Amino acid sequence: SDSLKALVDPRSVPAARPDKTHWPLELLYLGREYPKGGDYFRDRLRAAFARNKAVEDPEQIKALIARGEYVARELEALYYLRKYRAMKKRYYED
Amino acid sequence: LSCKVLSSVVTPCYCFVSPQIRVKPDNTGVVTDGVKHSMNPFCEIAVEEAVKLKEKKLIKEVVAVSCGPQQSQETIRTALAMGADRGIHVDVSGKDYENLGPLQVSKILAALAKQEDAQLILLGKQAIDDDCNQTGQMTAALLDWPQGTFASEVSLEGDKINLVREIDGGLEHIKINTPAVITADLRLNTPRYATLPNIMKAKKKKIVTVKPADLGVDVTSRLEVLKVEEPPQRQAGMKVETVEDLVVKLKEAGRV
What we know:
heterodimer; A: mainly alpha; 4 helices; B: alpha/beta; nine-stranded mixed sheet; two-stranded antiparallel ribbon; 7 helices; 11 strands; transport (chain B); electron transfer activity (chain B); Rossmann-like_a/b/a_fold (chain B); electron transport (chain B); ETF_b (chain B)
């Protein structure tokens, strides 16, 4: 699908659906600092996109994109909490 | 309050998730080659606060500043991606950078504040690599500006600032005049993550590079590091059978 194509070459995807093409790149970028390793995350991300490559139904695509957004927000929360807890542990005696 | 805010992201510091920090073999410092550097967590909070103030239309412009080698520009880019308008990179590298401390940085910030006609300087309360907790205070002293340190809440009221400070005894509410220096504490806000689209957009924002000499600042250090050591190895614990044993052991160790 367009999303997987975007992973390979963003410019090959028509500009008509720009909002849907940035997700693979964004998730890849967010996954760099994943606790289990950026490589681990990237491999799982690629596998997930490959699995859903053939999906054409717009409803399903919407649901998958929503899941991608959810994962992105979860990653942001993970990184924030990790940093917050590290600082709290180091600098604040509670 | 229509003013410009200088938000300092000063030292690119050791990323907290970096692997074991090692002391250099000659005990003059810590190994920095190959260690990932990123924005100081407390400075992230400062940048977030500056951007929030701009979003509330309480200030006009946010300028992100970093002092260091070429790589410092990465940190400025992150600040720009979070919402800062432009960046100033004060180029300090090599030996000068190794010896760069709070005094030199505050002199640089003071010079920049005058040059940029800033009304507010927002910094993190301390850097997690040197834990000095001095830059904000020194900058305020050099400029003869009021300071609100360890801020956990900031609000602007006319041309004054209401601040809540986190102190040992609890929370202190103060009101200071502008221009002022504020240092951010952990609970001031939740910094936004610099997402990829924002980083792309930030590439259009300008970063100007200057040298300390251009600002009339001498960065020679007044300090000499004598020795850097690793903390003592953690000793193995001892198990005791009863409370009486524990008391005896504590008395032996001179702790009771």
